[in-house]
Write a structure and sequence with these properties.
By secondary structure, the chain is of the alpha+beta class. The chain is built from 34 helices and 21 strands. The chain starts with a strand and ends with a helix. Helix content is about 45%, strand content about 15%. Strand 3 and strand 4 form a beta hairpin. Helix 13 packs antiparallel against helix 14, helix 19 packs across helix 22 and helix 31 runs antiparallel to helix 32.
Length: about 800
């Protein structure tokens, strides 16, 4: 397998300056370059290393030079300043749980003792690559260039030259200084543009010995990413702090929005940086690399070029340090190996996790950040990842033990190595056999875990036991205060029994669902004379959420929510229960909205379902029930909406199932006098994902949105939205925001050719045209010259100054992207 190494390191200074992976030299005894801070990134693959170096310093930066030893002659380029910020962000939280060879060009230029392989300006640097001669010759060459290095440096430099290494000597380009380049101006705060050396070498190496020349102590922090976790292997006298983070993926190194969007960044939106490019090469697969963090303090006599070896995870399991045991067990789960099974079990046998007082454990968590039994939890997790069937007895012991955190993790491990044993323990949990345990979140989680496991994997053989648990522990009143986060064992047993095919349980569950549907909007149980709250003339508890694409059931709808959520893994059972209630004639028209929502949750509609939805639609038009809502602070042209909620529910159900023909028939039933219903139908057509619905949606955009953008309230908001000035401001929409999101997404995905037509349509209000230019077109990866021209034509037509700034910003970004594309 290809070996990959990817290191990031930074050097943290103590009271004196620290110099590492390079030696600083300067022109004059009178010039002091204080506190240079350096960071480095190493990428190694197939015999080629990329070494990215960055440095901070205070002082006369134009008077310093930087001497870096390398195993062979490099290619050189500069990289983005954001590279190390992206690395910092990507490695901020712990994770608990390719290049080809080069023909390197060589120059014929040489001196008496030093051969100058290459000399060029790269970014803000003048760089010379030197080889040959002895240390004294290199010192003399630097002296000729006006720089000095300490006399005692010669033996260290000779040690590199004896191994046929080369040196890169860098200094800030006088041209860059004289031109006042922005990157040079940024040096005032101590940041110098990173530079990347690409060179051939047999193994990854970090040249630390050169730092001993400065005769100062240095604290070193390295981040190493490789196929397997690596640690430094040649520094026995140095006390390393080791952190292992597991695998990385390319998504962690995408350009952060806060870097790409604000002024002053040199990264363009939708372009790649060096770090993004590197991550894509090496971390496109989830198991592409492992991250290790290494920290140590070096005295000058300890500084040597660092080499790397494998992280000894199995040996670390025997450590007296809890954190080291946790990370070792986690790593062995990330990199599964059967050799780790016995050591993991041995570590668990030595643990006293069952003796840990739960209150003390909680205090330990708040102080340290993890529980004192986390090493056992991580070991159990690792055994599950390994698939260690031989550990079943030991894992079962923990699953039945008194430590709830370990028991919960052990249950999850049994799912992988002994499913039948997991089922038997889940039945014990729901039957109440573990009620002696302390009341804690993990114990509640075990009840929920048992419910979900039995629903997903239980069979007819489990129904007799589940039926007995239901008989002993279930009461219908448990639904009144049912909380999925604090589940009732009897309710959980009922759900599991129904999922496993118990007809008695299914009948009881459907009866609870029907009672819930009938009870929504009924008089309050605590005050029979008062009905549930209403919005307009519609019961608030009934289908409040349908107006905003949610199905909120309220406390009374707990059985409906439970079936929809918990039986999703058994769609045949779930759909049977949902249909049984939706088609029950006892519900009648008062529950039309709820019936439609229930049918929206089945996997597919059958002919009976479609007929019922059409009946609900027709009845809702003939005898509408309205819900009026005000969306406060929406800044839309209109924030007051009147919903014919039963009709909306039927439309959403048809849209969810892609029934565009039926929705277009509904569209023809509604006049433009009912703009709110038209808006909901346009949204429902967007839910279908069917391009056949696009003409109706576009008609709504050209009619309603075109009128809304001209509303004085919206224009006023557009003129006062604060910067940053890019894209269409989210706080000002041509429609209710949830409609805008769904409708624009539908048009962009299924009718993209219509977007430029909307931008160029001179019959539309310039602000609506600007909306389509700034909002969906910002998703383009490849803007066109036509797009830029459209923006230029729009600018003078838009009478809002801040919107003109947004257009200017978009034009600037589009031109930069076009320039980059042309250069590729």
């Amino acid at each position: 397998m290809r070996r990959i190494v990817f290191c990031s390191l930074s050097f943290i200074l103590l009271t004196s300056a620290a110099y590492a992976d390079g030696c600083f030299v300067w022109r004059s005894e009178d010039v002091d370059i204080r506190e240079p801070r350096q960071k480095a990134l190493i990428v190694f693959a197939e015999g080629v290393e990329e070494l990215v170096l960055a440095v901070q310093c205070e002082g006369a930066v134009e008077d310093f030079a930087w001497l870096v030893p390398l195993p062979s002659a490099p290619e050189v380029r500069v990289v983005e300043l954001e590279t190390f910020e992206m690395l910092r962000q990507a490695t901020r939280l712990a994770d608990m749980g390719r290049s080809s060879r080069f023909d390197f060009a060589r120059s014929a230029e040489s001196g008496d003792d030093v051969n100058v392989l290459d000399r060029r300006t790269v970014g803000i640097y003048d760089i010379a690559v030197l080889e040959g001669g002895a240390g004294g010759g290199l010192v003399a060459w630097l002296a000729e260039q006006g720089f000095r290095i300490p006399a005692h440096a010669t033996p260290v430099i000779d040690s590199y030259l004896d191994r046929d290494w080369v040196f890169a000597a860098m200094r800030i380009s006088p041209t860059a200084v004289s031109e006042g380049a922005p990157l040079v101006e940024s040096l005032a705060d101590g940041t110098i543009q990173p530079v990347m050396f690409r060179f051939a070498c047999d193994e990854p190496v970090y040249p630390l010995q050169i730092s001993s020349i400065m005769q100062r102590q240095a604290e070193v922090l390295l981040y190493v990413v490789a196929e397997d976790a690596l640690v430094c292997s040649n520094t026995e006298a140095v006390d390393w702090e080791v952190g292992v983070f597991g695998r990385m993926d390319a998504d962690r190194f995408m350009i952060p929005d806060y870097l790409a969007h604000y002024e002053g960044t040199n990264v363009l939106r939708d372009t790649t940086s060096y770090m993004t490019e590197t991550a894509t090469r090496y971390f496109t697969e989830r198991d592409g690399a492992a991250l290790t963090r290494l920290r140590a303090t070096f005295a000058p006599d300890q500084m040597m070029d660092l080499v790397f070896g494998s992280y000894p995870a199995i040996e670390e399991l025997a450590s007296d340090d809890l954190a080291r045991r946790i990370q070792a067990a986690t790593y062995l789960g990330v990199r599964p190996s059967r050799d780790a099974v016995a050591p993991l079990m041995e570590m668990m046998w030595r643990s006293n996790a069952n003796l840990i007082d739960q209150e003390d454990a909680l205090q330990f968590y708040w102080e340290i950040g993890y529980y004192p039994d986390q090493d056992v939890v991580s070991a159990l997790w690792a055994l599950g990842r390994i698939g260690a069937g031989e550990a079943e007895i030991e894992v079962t012991r923990w699953a039945q033990g008194d430590n709830p955190r370990c028991a919960l993790e052990a249950l999850d491990t049994l799912r992988e190595i002994a499913p039948q044993t997991a089922t038997e323990i889940c039945l014990e949990i729901l039957s109440g056999a573990r009620t002696h345990l302390v009341d804690c979140e993990e114990e509640k989680a075990m009840i929920a875990w048992s419910r979900d496991w039995l629903i997903a994997h239980g069979g007819p053989d489990a129904t007799p036991v589940l039926g007995g648990i239901v008989k002993d522990r279930y009461t219908p009143s448990a639904w009144d205060d049912y909380d999925p986060m604090d589940p009732d064992p009897g309710v959980c047993a009922l759900l599991a029994a129904a999922a496993c095919g118990d007809e008695t349980a299914q009948a009881e569950l459907s009866g609870s669902m029907k009672r819930a549907a009938l009870g929504l909007g009924a008089p309050d149980a605590g005050d029979p004379g008062r009905r549930g709250s209403t919005i307009g003339n519609y019961p608030a508890d009934m289908v409040l959420g349908v107006a905003i694409l949610h199905s909120r059931y309220g406390a009374r709808g707990a059985p409906l929510r439970a079936v929809q959520e918990h039986l999703a893994g058994r769609p045949a059972v779930r759909d049977s229960l949902l249909r049984r209630v939706a088609h029950d004639p006892e519900l009648g028209s008062p529950a039309d909205g709820r019936r439609a929502v229930l049918l929206s949750k089945v996997e597919t509609l059958d002919d009976r379902d479609v007929d019922l939805l059409n009946e609900i639609w027709d009845h809702a038009l003939a005898q509408p029930r309205f819900m009026r809502m005000v969306f406060r602070g929406s800044h839309a042209a209109s924030d007051t909406v009147t919903y014919n909620v039963d009709a909306v529910a039927a439309a959403y159900a048809l849209g969810t199932h892609g029934r565009v023909a039926e929705l277009l028939a509904c569209w023809r039933d509604v006049s433009w006098d009912d703009v709110d219903m038209k808006g909901e139908l346009a949204l429902a057509l967007g839910l279908t994902g069917d391009p056949a619905g696009a003409p109706a949606v576009l008609e709504y955009i050209r009619t309603v949105w075109n009128r809304n953008v001209a509303a004085p309230s919206l224009v006023s908001v557009l003129g006062s939205m604060p910067p940053p000035p890019y894209d269409w401001p989210l706080g000002a929409s041509p429609d209710l925001r949830y409609r805008v999101k769904r409708i624009t997404g539908f048009i962009v995905e299924h009718a993209w050719d219509e977007v430029p037509a909307l931008v160029e349509d001179e019959s539309l209000d310039p602000l609506l045209r600007t909306f389509w230019a700034l909002d969906p077109l910002s998703w383009w990866e490849s803007p066109t010259a036509r797009y830029v021209e459209s923006l230029r034509e729009l600018r003078p037509l838009v009478g809002v100054a801040l919107m003109q700034k947004r257009i200017d910003w978009k034009i600037e970004q589009a031109l930069k992207t076009l320039s980059l594309l042309a250069a590729q």
